[in-house]
Amino acid sequence: MGVVIDDKYFDKLAQTIIDGAKAECVHLIEEGLANGMDPLDAVEKGLSKGITKVGDDFGAGIFFLPELIQAANAMKEGVAILDEKIKASGKERKSLGKIVIGTVKGDIHDIGKSVVSAVLQANGYDVVDIGIDVPENQFIQAVRDNNADVLGMSTLLTLPLEEMGKVIEKMKEEGLRDKVKVIVGGCPVTQEFADEIDADAVGFDAQDAVVKVNRLLGVE
Ligand code: B12
């Protein structure tokens, strides 16, 4: 009998992240994919729910750093498999635009940014992911070297939020701001904050990132 991909299946997937059970996570992903599971659903309805619970429990002092790291390792392994599938699901077509994306200086969170990169890529964008803990100058250099249409910046931490504003100020000084759209994202990033630092948009999840980038570049 085939496996049914339903909410229960996604709950099982979420639980492997909570348990930090990497092998089981990979097993369920492979089994799910073999049975027609949509890779983005697996990230959003499964893995992300699990890691959000872990984050809440960490914030509440129920989970500690070793558990957070174990959960993140399972998440990263699972997301890596799914990202490849998401990218491959994109139809071959002319690139809609070039996006440079990275996590700002002081922050090593990389999973959300990678999911956003994969989904933008699957939707026809050329994405240059410049990694984590990226200093201001490296963002500027990458935007220039790649002739980017859009710069995406991510942070999940409150302290490095100000880095985003610094990068935008630097873009203005370098005469780049008018040529490049800026989208920001990550859990502490609000619309108010985006307005404050003069970003063009904020994306609340990967699908929202696509909608906003399409809008910024006038893609129907
Ligand atoms: C996994 C995780 C880790 C992993 C990261 C592994 C990795 N390789 O990325 C590890 C264990 C390394 C880690 C470390 C730390 N973490 Co941590 N971590 C998390 C956790 C549980 C989940 C993050 C995640 O991957 N979510 C899943 C992805 C898919 O979602 P996402 O990141 O939100 O991304 C989505 C959207 O935000 C959006 N998005 C994200 N980026 C962008 C960018 C653009 C351009 C757009 C458009 C959209 C967009 O789209 C994404 C897809 O839907 C969060 C809790 C949480 N609920 O977020 C804490 C959390 C972010 N961590 C936290 C903390 C405190 C830390 C540490 C400082 C802990 C410590 N004491 O050392 C360190 C940070 C060190 C550093 N300098 O960066 C706090 C942050 C508090 C704060 N406000 O500052 C949180 C909120 C936990 C908590 N409740 O306290 N962490």
Based on CA atoms alone, the radius of gyration comes out at 18 Å
Write the H/E string, N to C.
Answer: HHHHEHEHEHEHEH
CATH topology group of the largest domain: Rossmann fold
Instruction: State the shape.
Output: globular
Largest sheet, strands/sense/barrel: 5 strands, parallel
Query: Got a strand count?
Result: 5
User: Structural class of the helix and strand makeup?
Assistant: alpha/beta
CATH architectural grouping of the largest domain: 3-Layer(aba) Sandwich
Q: Indicate how many domains the architecture comprises.
A: 2
- How are the strands of the largest sheet arranged? 2-1-3-4-5
CATH C-level class of the largest domain: Alpha Beta
User: What portion of residues is helical?
Assistant: 55-70%
Q: What is the mean predicted local confidence, pLDDT?
A: 94
Features:
single chain; globular; Rossmann fold; 9 helices; 5-stranded parallel sheet; binds cobalamin; Methyltransferase, Methionine Synthase (B12-binding Domains), Chain A, domain 1; 2 domains; 220 residues; alpha/beta
Structure description:
The protein is an alpha/beta fold and 220 residues long. It has 2 domains: 7-89, Orthogonal Bundle (Methyltransferase, Methionine Synthase (B12-binding Domains), Chain A, domain 1), CATH 1.10.1240.10; 98-217, Cobalamin-binding domain (Rossmann fold). The chain contains 9 helices and 5 strands; from the N terminus they run ααααβαβαβαβαβα. It has helices at residues 7-18, 22-34, 39-59, 65-89, 111-122, 136-146, 161-173, 191-196, 206-217; strands spanning 98-103, 126-129, 150-154, 181-185, 201-203. It has a 5-stranded parallel β-sheet, with helices on both faces. Helix 3 (39-59) runs antiparallel to helix 4, helix 4 (65-89) packs parallel to helix 5 (111-122) and helix 6 packs across helix 7 (161-173). It is globular. The mean pLDDT is 94. Bound molecules: cobalamin (B12). The site of cobalamin has 40 residues, from helix 3, helix 4, helix 5, strand 3 and strand 4.
